[in-house]
Specification:
The chain is an alpha+beta fold and about 750 residues long. It has 12 helices and 38 strands. A hairpin with a 4-residue loop joins strand 28 and strand 29. InterPro entries: 6-hairpin_glycosidase_sf, 6hp_glycosidase-like_sf, Bac_rhamnosid6H, Bac_rhamnosid_N, Galactose-bd-like_sf.
């Protein structure tokens, strides 16, 4: 298709926290059979109606230089005669946001084609107004997120319907051509993943009600799916604030939906919390009569508080639901074993991944919704194993390449261009491409990203000093993350960064070979070997057979950490006998500060599996994640110290977070990087490794986990892999069913029957 639409906006220009309504009518002839393809984009978000019916919302968050648009077939929404397209567009407009999300110029773009011929397009003929339904003098939810909302239901005037007077509206003004040279939006990209799905959930319980000089009666009926009865609220006494706190039982992501009758209006405020530390975010000024309420912005919580005020007559609540939204995975793995805690951990890991899978893979659905590289890479491993999907990871890796910095580094977060420079995240992005290739076998995708990977590698090369090591890590603007802990010395030549650089070189050598770049492959291997030699020469402590955290100038740091040495094993630099000594003496022996973050635990577990310590790995998962379960976790926390007081969970005021007593930084209780048990537990318990499925290789190990029975089913593009076994009197028996087309890599004494179908 050829874009003929223009980017348009209100003639008064863009403003911070701005809501605009756009309208355009057109005629459909009688008995006309045609395809009506509508394409739409906006900066920052849109909601689309056709003839008063909701069609969709979007677009996928993106960098302004690579702007996404959505497509809808709207024939089913149209009628004979006059039809109307109505769109509310929200523009964030605030520059002060920590992760640089929602940036760029304001704009709206739409084009409608009938059987591939232009019917209408956004231009100066469209009508626009500042939406009267939203109060915009609101404060921020946090510096990581958007603004709170005030919705004035009294201002609903049927503007999205066909029959409506636009007398007070004005003509839109043109901003730019749709794309290309001279446009504010150089590239338009059609949505690369399926549309998000929506579904409804109800609360599990009413945690409490409070009269507060009024009354809140029959709140428990809000749990009734059929809505056969109603709750009532009396907030007629001056200053009365009756309220109820609803518990959904676990994290929900989307938007609450409320239907209520307020005979003479009133005020409703909604507070949200992943824990019971609730924050008021949405305020609704109710109109007299029926009110159908839903916030514009996406929310995430476990607990929802409804507080009513200033209602002269009793309010009747007909419905309180939560409209969930998320990525439409088509398949999902199943797993069972006779260890209830492992089953629970597996389930929570899968659910945490679901709650962070949207238009991109998010680190957390409430605080910032950002595309952090390491969260996406870990979630990728989960998704390959758990859902068999590749489209979402592919999009996320592409978005990383699209915002690559001019000097070659990849920003640590996205999907919009930003200043976050984390040298280890640059490595994890390349390793994420390698994981994608191993799982999918899509060497053409590797070829597409090869120039970007080489630019990252060239950037790494420029960071080395005459020792051959990554150096000057303490420079302004650089953050050597490694793990969220202060127990790592990160000065100058940081060992972990050079280790990851080595692993990148080895991975790129393998990919170059598959691309037929044999000379480059050999050169990358030689470069990797030289870097390994430099790491061992300068950063190895031979007297204790461990790697130091760093070297500052010419002085080797005396500080040791588990993270540095686990990475040395994981990246293939530490030999097996050295690794076993380190694990037994320093890790199990407790000689170094423990790993307390959920992120780095996936590297710990992978190393233990690599060394044949599956039973130990299971113990760690049951101990670390199991302790979260014992403290009430229903999704995984961003950070957690299992040695903390049993009465604590992550909180600004309770600890279990690096931002302890740091007000203004929201704590995440649904964090993607903690979901690794979803792919690790099948490896530990069932001996199943799907990481090289794209190469047609399926790795099966002897199940060494000592439980009595286990089973699982895991989707792949060739069909599902099914494993079940039982252990009786020390002997294991069972079956592994595998779709034809896989090469099975397994030991000669693999005890389960292998059946191809």
């Amino acid at each position: 298709m050829e874009w003929q639409a223009k980017w348009i906006w209100h003639p008064n220009g863009e403003k911070v926290n701005q809501y605009l309504d756009f309208r355009k009518t057109f005629e459909k002839k009688a008995n006309e059979l045609a395809n009506y393809q509508l394409r739409i984009s906006a900066r920052t978000e849109y909601v689309l109606w056709v003839n008063g019916r909701f069609v969709g919302r979007g677009p996928s968050p993106c960098d302004m230089e690579h702007q996404y648009y959505d497509s809808y077939e709207i024939a089913d929404w149209l009628i004979e005669g006059i039809n109307v397209i109505a769109v509310t567009v929200y523009y964030f407009g605030e520059k002060d946001i920590r992760t640089r999300q929602m940036q760029g110029k304001a704009g709206f773009l739409l084009q409608l084609e009938r059987d591939e011929s232009l019917l209408l397009a956004s231009d100066e003929s469209w009508l626009v107004r500042t939406s009267p339904r939203y109060g915009v003098k609101t404060e921020r939810i946090s510096r990581w997120g958007g603004f709170k909302e005030i919705y004035i239901a009294e201002q609903e005037d049927g503007w999205e319907q066909r029959q409506y007077s636009t007398e007070s509206w004005v003509s839109a003004t043109s901003l730019s051509s749709p794309y290309g040279e001279g446009s504010l939006w150089p590239r338009l990209i059609e949505r690369e993943i399926p549309a998000l799905k929506y579904w409804i959930v109800l609360a599990e319980s009413i945690l409490r009600t409070e009269s507060n000089y009024g009354s809140f009666k029959d709140a428990e009926v809000l749990l009734d799916e059929l809505g056969r009865r109603h709750a009532t609220v009396d907030a007629s006494v001056p200053g009365a604030m009756p309220s109820a706190v609803i518990d959904f039982g676990k994290e929900v992501v989307g938007r609450p939906v409320l239907e209520l009758t307020a005979p003479q209006g009133g005020v409703l405020r909604l507070a949200y919390g992943e824990s019971l530390e609730l924050q008021y975010v949405d305020t609704f000024i109710l109109k007299p009569g029926q009110n159908h309420l839903q916030p514009f912005g996406r929310r995430a919580c476990r607990y929802l508080q409804l507080t009513f005020m200033a209602a002269p007559e009793t309010i009747i609540i007909n419905k309180v639901q939560f409209e969930m939204t998320g990525y439409p995975f088509e398949q999902e793995a199943s797993f069972y074993c006779d260890a209830p805690m492992l089953n629970r951990i597996f389930s929570i890991s899968s659910y945490t991944t679901l709650m962070n899978s949207h238009d991109h893979l998010e680190d957390c659905p409430w605080r910032e919704k950002a595309l952090w590289v390491v969260d996406a890479v870990i979630m990728g491993k989960v998704i390959y194993s758990q859902f068999g999907d590749t489209a979402l990871l592919r999009k996320c890796l592409l978005q990383g390449a699209r915002i690559q910095n001019e000097e070659g580094s990849i920003p640590g977060t996205g999907p919009e261009r930003n200043h976050f420079l984390l040298p280890d995240f640059c490595a994890y992005w390349i390793l994420g491409v390698s994981d994608f290739w191993n799982y999918t076998g899509d060497i053409h995708f590797v070829e597409t990203l090869w120039p970007s990977m080489m630019r990252v590698l060239d950037w790494y090369r420029k960071q080395r000093d005459d020792t051959g090591l990554f150096a000057n890590a303490t420079r302004e603007g650089m953050w050597c993350f490694i793990d969220w802990t202060d127990q790592i010395d990160r000065r100058d030549k940081v060992t972990a960064i050079s280790l990851l650089n080595y692993k990148v070189l080895r991975s790129m050598s393998q990919m170059a070979e598959q691309l037929g770049k044999m000379t480059e492959s050999k050169e990358l291997t030689v470069e990797a070997d030289a870097l390994k030699e430099a790491i061992c020469q300068y950063l190895w402590l031979p007297e204790i057979r461990l790697f130091s955290d760093c070297m500052d100038g010419n002085e080797l740091s005396g500080h040791l950490s588990l993270q540095t040495n686990f990475l040395a094993v994981w990246c293939g630099v530490m030999e097996q006998d050295e690794a076993l000594q380190f694990i037994n003496e320093y890790y199990f022996g407790g000689k170094l500060a423990s790993v307390r973050g959920a992120f780095f635990q996936h590297i710990v577990i992978e190393v233990l599996l690599q060394l044949g310590l599956a039973e130990k790995a299971a113990d760690i998962i049951e101990g670390y994640w199991g302790e979260m379960v014992d403290r009430g976790a229903t999704t995984w926390w961003e950070t957690f110290d299992s040695d903390s007081a049993l009465c604590t969970i992550p909180s600004t005021y309770l600890g279990n977070t690096p931002t302890y007593l740091w007000e203004g930084v929201p704590v995440s209780l649904c964090h993607a990087w903690g979901a690794s048990p979803a792919y690790l537990i099948p490896r530990i318990v069932l001996g199943l490794d799907l990481s090289r499925a794209g190469q047609g290789k399926l790795e099966l190990r002897i199940p060494t986990w000592e439980g009595a029975e286990a089973s699982g089913e895991f989707p792949t593009k060739h069909g599902s892999i099914r494993i079940r076994f039982e252990r009786r009197n020390g002997r294991i028996s069972g079956i592994t069913e595998i779709p034809k087309g896989f090469e099975v890599i397994s030991p000669e004494d693999y005890p389960l029957q292998i059946h191809f179908y």
